[in-house]
UniProtKB/TrEMBL annotation:
Protein known as: Deoxyribodipyrimidine photo-lyase
Similarity annotation: Belongs to the DNA photolyase family.
PANTHER family referenced in this protein's UniProt entry, alphabetically: CRYPTOCHROME, CRYPTOCHROME CIRCADIAN CLOCK 5 ISOFORM X1
Note describing how the cofactor binds: Binds 1 FAD per subunit.
Coiled coil stretches, renumbered: none
Keywords: Chromophore, FAD, Flavoprotein, Lyase
Domain Photolyase/cryptochrome alpha/beta: 1-125
Amino acid sequence: APVVLWFRRDLRLGDHAALHEAAKHSKHVLALYVLDEALIKPSGAPRMAFLLGCLSELDNALGGRLMIVTGDPVREVVQAARDIGASAVHVSSDTGPYGRRRDAEVAKALADNNIGWVETGSPYAVTPGRVTKPDGDPYRVFTPFHRAWTRHGWPRPAETGPSLVDWLKPGKSAKLPKPPSLGEMRLPAPGEEAALDAWHTFLGSGIETYDTDRDRPDREGTTRLSPYLRWGAIHPRTMLADLAGDERAGAKSLRAELCWREFHADVLWHRPKTARENYDRRFDRLVCETGAAARQAFDQWCEGRTGYPVVDAGMRQLLAEGWMHNRIRMVVASFLVKDLHLPWQWGARHFMRHLVDGDLASNQLNWQWVAGSGTDAAPYFRVFNPLTQGEKFDPVGDYVRKYVPELRGVEGKAVHQLKQRPAGYPEPMVEHAHERQVALARYGAITGS
Ligand code: FAD
């Protein structure tokens, strides 16, 4: 009997463990994607546009045989499977809170129809929940997780491709919706081929300097693969296999960064509520600003009009590109939480709306890491100084000038500690040294230090 391969966060055909498994059971496979309102609604325009691009690329790679339906996954998946007389529906596990709930319901509805449910692999090299301490407890600190994750290891990439099976022609299929308008925003080319191209280019030139350049927002020093990893246009196992045995500093750092992605997914798997709530419950008592003045301050932060050049450059990069450099994500997040004293959830929501790589686990838990309320020995008393961070990581000021046109006339690193403010560029909305003291006092009150 034929089977269904339901695509979700695995929009590729190479190194696809669930496709490999499906092919063992049947040569006749229906490729299905469900546009689910529950996921579409909270996705901002950049992420939605990139998803639609990836789906269109996948459909091309399948010779136009991707069945796309819109609606409730429970109804649509069961219907599609029944229509072709499928024996089973194959998927890569979705380990996020919504995906787990949805999949439990779909699997149950399929079982009621005598149709099997087979999960193989996940968007991670090691499926969340698999790496635990010897006593079975989850890790709370990155470094020992990283060691255990490396020891655990992962399978070789699955040998799959478009011609592994015969793709069934869908009986009915909705057209892909028109992508939302992005104005002048340019996103990276979507899809598996573009992901592999970007990765191979990076392996050829970027990996050599990754270790030193990855903290430099003024350089193209990182892979820029996060949107592809988000939708599974490339699997991290493919990347880790290419990096295997490579002991150069850049390769080691990149393996560690990929492990951060897995660590956060693992934390969210064990504690799904940390998508909204503090991991460290002491932080529930932290005094945050939430009134009308806080709303106004939040708007200034969102628009990149704080008067702190590197913060403004970051916030405007997010609006212009749907992406922000990791170092700057940390700086602007620290500013929101520790200089403006706003709830980290406000910032996380804004990021999720605008990031093309917006990912619940990576976003919420990185926000919590910066806020000090997350896992790890994250030092809540470490308050980034937005001026010196700018001088250190954007030493010539090119990053700021690129995104803040009002400051283009200021030369060199003087762009960070402005002697004079060009017309139209705002005064600092708060005084960092003072707000740092306020933050430390508030943290002291909840941690007893
Ligand atoms: P590279 O440096 O090339 O790293 C390669 C890959 O490793 C990335 O694509 C990403 O998948 C992973 N990675 C790197 N750093 C991290 C990290 N700190 N945490 C988790 N994974 C990491 N990343 C997202 O993918 N989605 C998010 O929604 C997201 N939100 C963030 C919010 C905040 C406040 C912070 C501080 C970081 C966030 N990150 C998020 C992590 C990181 O900033 C991005 O993954 C990275 O900037 C993507 O660029 P890149 O692909 O060039 O990274």
